[in-house]
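User: Just a sanity check before I run the rest of the batch. Below are the C-alpha cells for the first item. I only need the designed sequence back.
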C-alpha cells in the first residue's frame, strides 16, 4: 500500500527527514503537491518562483523514479480523494510554522487518523523548531543575542540520508499540468526578466552553498554590507521553498568556521536571524499585520499615497533607495543593506505605514518569507522586538557613501544613464507600461529633502511619545 508524501516548502531530496522516514517504510511513494487556498494570497513574484521551483523539483523527482503529482483544491479533500484512488495508508509531510498552515495541518492530521490513515509530520524547515528553544523561565526569546547564545552550541542533529531513488506506486495517477496552474500569470512582463535572475532548484542551491563556502565566506563579515558585491550566499530564494536544508548550511558553515574561515561565524549568525524570525512569528502570529509592540498601534502612519506609489516604482529621487526598489522589481531580490535603507526611507522620511512596504516586498520578492519579511519591516520601523529605535533614521546618502562608495550599485539601476546598464534595462523591461518609464531622461526629483523628511519623522515621533 503506497504512502503519500505531501510536499510543501521542502522541495529537496537531501537532508529531508520526512522523506527519509517515508522511504524507510519500504512503501511505494506518491509524491504530491497541492495548490490549495493558502497559495491564493501569494504575491506575483513568489508565486512565479514557486512555479519555477516546482518545475525543477518535478524533474528531480522524475529522475529519482517517482513523478510529482500535482493537484488543486482544499488540501483535505485532495488528500482524501487521492487516498481513495491509490489505497494509500499513510500520509507524511514536513511541518510549517505559520498559524494558518498549522491550523490546517492539525485538522487534517486528526481527520486522517480517525480514518485509520497513518498521518505523520516531520521537522526540516528550520534548524530548531520554535517551541524547542525557550528562555530559562520557559518563554519565547524576544532579543536576538540571547537567542543566538541559546542555539550557537546546540547541535541540530545529523543529516537525514540523501534520497537517490524513490519506489513509485505502480498506478496510473492523474496529475494536473504545471503550466495550467499559470503560477507566473500575475507577473506579466516581469516573468521573462525574473527568469534571468532566479536560479530555481536544489542543484542550484547546493552549488551556491559550495561556491559561497570556498570563496565569499572568507570576507563575508567585512563585505556583506556592500550591495554591489557578490559577497553573500544568495541562499534565501532556496530556503523559502526548502530547496536547501538549513541543517546542511549549518554543518557546512560550521566546518568552515572550525577550519578558520573568518566570516563563517557571522554567516551562521545571519542564518540564525531566519530562525529567530520564525521563533517570533510562531509565538506572535500577527507579526505580519500588527505592531509587535502594542503601543505602536496608536502611531499615525501615513497610508496609501502618491509618495508610496513613487517609492514602489523606484522614483523617490534618492538614488540608493531607487536602486533598491528597481533591483526588487527587476530581479525579485534586494541586497539586505538596501532592504534596510529602502524600508527606513519609507517608514521614516515618508512616515508611511510599514505594512505598505511589507506588502510590496511580499508581492515582488522571490525569497519572500513571511517571518523574515515581517521581522525586517518591524525592525526598521521600530515597532518590533529588539528593533532599531524609530529615531535612528538611516540617511540614504550617508549609507550610500559608506556602502556604495563608488556608486556602482546605484549606477546599475540607473536607466536615466546612457548607455542604459543591463540591470536598468531589465527594470524597464519588467515595469508595467502604465508606469510610463523610458530610457534616458531626467532623474526623478526627491520626494522630500533628506533633512526635512528626517525632521518631520522625528517631530511625528515626539508628538506620538508625548501623547501616548
Ligand atoms: P546571506 O547574507 O548570505 O545570509 C544567509 C541566510 O541567512 C539568508 O539566505 C537568510 O535565510 C538568512 N538571513 C540573512 N539575513 C537575515 C535577516 N536580516 N533576517 C532573516 N534572515 C536572514 N529575507 C528573506 O529570506 N525573505 C524576506 O522576505 C525578507 N524580507 C526582508 C525585509 C526587510 C525589510 C529586511 C530588512 C530584511 C528582509 N530579509 C528577508 C532578510 C535579508 O535581507 C535576506 O535574508 C538576505 O538579504 C538574503 O540574501 P542572502 O541569501 O544572500 O543572505
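Assistant: Here's the designed sequence for the first item:
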Amino acid at each position: 500500500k503506497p504512502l503519500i508524501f505531501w510536499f510543501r516548502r521542502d522541495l529537496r531530496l537531501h537532508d529531508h527527514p520526512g522523506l527519509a522516514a517515508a522511504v524507510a517504510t519500504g512503501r511505494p511513494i506518491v509524491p504530491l503537491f497541492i495548490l490549495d487556498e493558502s497559495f491564493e494570497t501569494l504575491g506575483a513574484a513568489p508565486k512565479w518562483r514557486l512555479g519555477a521551483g516546482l518545475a525543477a523539483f518535478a524533474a528531480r523527482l522524475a529522475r529519482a523514479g517517482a513523478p510529482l503529482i500535482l493537484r488543486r483544491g482544499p488540501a483535505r479533500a485532495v488528500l482524501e480523494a487521492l487516498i481513495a484512488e491509490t489505497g494509500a495508508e499513510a500520509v507524511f509531510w514536513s511541518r510549517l510554522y505559520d498559524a494558518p498552515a498549522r491550523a490546517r495541518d492539525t485538522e487534517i492530521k486528526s481527520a486522517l487518523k480517525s480514518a485509520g490513515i497513518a498521518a505523520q509530520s516531520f521537522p526540516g524547515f528550520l534548524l530548531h523548531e520554535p517551541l524547542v528553544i525557550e528562555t530559562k523561565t520557559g518563554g519565547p526569546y524576544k532579543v536576538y543575542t540571547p537567542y543566538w547564545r541559546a542555539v550557537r552550541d546546540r547541535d541540530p542533529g545529523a543529516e537525514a540520508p540523501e534520497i537517490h531513488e524513490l519506489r513509485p506506486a505502480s498506478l496510473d495517477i492523474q496529475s494536473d499540468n504545471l503550466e495550467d496552474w499559470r503560477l507566473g500569470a500575475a507577473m506579466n512582463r516581469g516573468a521573462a526578466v525574473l527568469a534571468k535572475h532566479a536560479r530555481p532548484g536544489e542543484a542550484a542551491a547546493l552549488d551556491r552553498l559550495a561556491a559561497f563556502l570556498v570563496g565569499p565566506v572568507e570576507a563575508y563579515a567585512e563585505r556583506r554590507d556592500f550591495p554591489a558585491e557578490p559577497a553573500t550566499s544568495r541562499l534565501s530564494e532556496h530556503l523559502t521553498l526548502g530547496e536547501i536544508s538549513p541543517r546542511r548550511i549549518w554543518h557546512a558553515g560550521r566546518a568552515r568556521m572550525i577550519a578558520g574561515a573568518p566570516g563563517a561565524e557571522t554567516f551562521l549568525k545571519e542564518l540564525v536571524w531566519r530562525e529567530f524570525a520564525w521563533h517570533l512569528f510562531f509565538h506572535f502570529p500577527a507579526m505580519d499585520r500588527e505592531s509587535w509592540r502594542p503601543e505602536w498601534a496608536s502611531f499615525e502612519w501615513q497610508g496609501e499615497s502618491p509618495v508610496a506609489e513613487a517609492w514602489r516604482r523606484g522614483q523617490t529621487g534618492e538614488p540608493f533607495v531607487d536602486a533598491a526598489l528597481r533591483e526588487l522589481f527587476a530581479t525579485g531580490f534586494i541586497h539586505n543593506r538596501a532592504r534596510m535603507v529602502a524600508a527606513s526611507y519609507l517608514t521614516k522620511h515618508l512616515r508611511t505605514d510599514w505594512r505598505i512596504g511589507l506588502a510590496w516586498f511580499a508581492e515582488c520578492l522571490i525569497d519572500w518569507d513571511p517571518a523574515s519579511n515581517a521581522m525586517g519591516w518591524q525592525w526598521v520601523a521600530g515597532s518590533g522586538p529588539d528593533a532599531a529605535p524609530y529615531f535612528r533614521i538611516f540617511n540614504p546618502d550617508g549609507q550610500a557613501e559608506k556602502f556604495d562608495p563608488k556608486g556602482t550599485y546605484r549606477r546599475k539601476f540607473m536607466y536615466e544613464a546612457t548607455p542604459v546598464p543591463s540591470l536598468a534595462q531589465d527594470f524597464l523591461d519588467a515595469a508595467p507600461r502604465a508606469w510610463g518609464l523610458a530610457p534616458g531622461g531626467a532623474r526623478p526629483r526627491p520626494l522630500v529633502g533628506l533633512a526635512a523628511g528626517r525632521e518631520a519623522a522625528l517631530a511625528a515621533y515626539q508628538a506620538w511619545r508625548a501623547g501616548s
